[in-house]
User: Fold this.
Amino acid sequence: MAEIRALRLGRFSRAIVWRPWWRVLMAWVVVGVALAGCLSLGKIPLTPRELLAALSAPLSDTGLIVWQLRLPRTLLAALVGGALALSGWLLQQVMRNPLASPDTLGVTSGASAAAVAYFSLLAADLGHAWLPLAAAGGALMAVGIVYWLAWQQGVTPLRLVLMGIGLSALLTAATTFLLVSSPFSTTLSAYVWLTGSVYGGNWSEVERLSIGLALALVAMAPLVRYALLAAVDDALAVGIGVRVQRMRGALTLLAAVLAGLAVAWGGAIAFVGLMAPHLARRLVPVPGAAQIVMTIAAGATVVMLADLVGRTLFLPLDLPAGIFVAAIGAPFFLMLLIRQVR
Amino acid sequence: MAMLSANDLTLGYQRQAILRHLSLDLPESKISVLVGSNGCGKSTLLKALARLLMPWQGGVALDGKNIHRQPTRIVARTLSLLPQHPVAPEGITVRQLVSLGRHPHQSWRAQWSEEDERQVELALSRTDLLGAAHRSVDTLSGGQRQRAWIAMAVAQDTPLMLLDEPTSFLDLAHQMEVLELLASLNRESSKTIVMVLHDLNLACRYADHIVALRDGAILAQGTPREVITRERVKAIFQLDCQVIDDPYFHTPLCIPFARQKA
Assistant:
């Protein structure tokens, strides 16, 4: 009875696996350190003492830099990373496939196609204000189409993955067509968006994204235990009284909303959705709430650090975070997999 | 009460019917074993009884009521199922896996009641897995893993258990271990057990009731002594054999000869 502790209050009860939680706590300390690092470093580097002074005086010169530039941008990076990571984790459970990610379902390609269409057709008249809505709409629409195509008296994970890959290919072709046939300035801003960037992140963006994510997390609360059950095979799930198709639909929708929101504000930083769950699984091998929280921490840290590298290493250039999510993340991811096999 | 029956059941995959107008009452608190050659429909029948397949015609009744008309969670409190090749989530521990069996008894509020805990510990001890409870299911041997799956069904605490070839891929000693476990569950908790088995002689030793299928219909049913005769085995498996009395257990013992040429 060592590893499971019971938490009971009247009729409310939960089983808690304690052991991984100290690791999760450490991970959040790392998140905090990364956040502090992102706030301190930049064109004007701050010592920890200066950072504290800047944080306590929001209207000073350094205070403005930290509060108005670095903090919203860093929070945006963390939210985008955390949401994509969680979405990836959910999809890997639902698809029972460690290769699944928001890409697989067409989330990223749908958002990309919609965003590029927006850049080349609507941005001239409407400005960039409606871009997140267009991207999120494109993401959800793509997932909807994939789900509809895969439906055959219910949906199987394999069909979902195959339809997702098929539709993604189609949407990528459409995106490329739009990019190539648009004027150069449009192409450039669209391309930066496609790489994934939190450049110029401000408080109103942070606010809107966090409200959206908070609503998604509230919706997730009753679904957490199903997120674990999604990984058992259908026959077994029916055997223990799970309505499999409803569960699959609800979890897929949740994952699509999370990724759609994240991509809408952060661009197509998709790789984090594949990588963060694997990283979390290495640190917390037992599936459960601790693994979910670890996944979010991993995703947030990766995107924050990628953005930090992007805006500091090549000063005065400010490069999109998406480049470094892949440039730093991919070798790390490969190393993780190589060590796992041996 | 846990009465499971099929009435005029017809169903199959795509357009091909596997079972045709099959009716069957499974005796309560007994061990029933479905036997038949590959492709005769015994696994399909078990899946239909477990509400995994939708009947084209006729139906399956649990306690007299259509199983598909009852909420699946309510059915899962009466009937548990161990599929043929169950898949465990990556990294899950034995105790976690076994506690998944408590799902039909849980709600959003109550996800680990004292009863849940008691049943999981009981299931682990009955299957002799208390020592391995903290281990990851991926690291278990075949025999242990099969016991873990059975423990999950035991934790579900249902009067009725359906098992699809619970002994496949196990060596003889582990086959015996699993069957002894099921027999003791039947004896001590008077659970109704319905399973598919390939080994005719083990089926004869453990079954109270044998249902022999051929081409999607019931060829014969009854006690092992009634069903397993030389003529019947020939009809079920197209196999020549001699059936003798098992000198130790006094159940029919089938000694197969070469398979008949068509």
In short: The first helix of chain B runs from residue 42 to 49. Chain B touches chain A through 47 residues (CB under 8 Å).
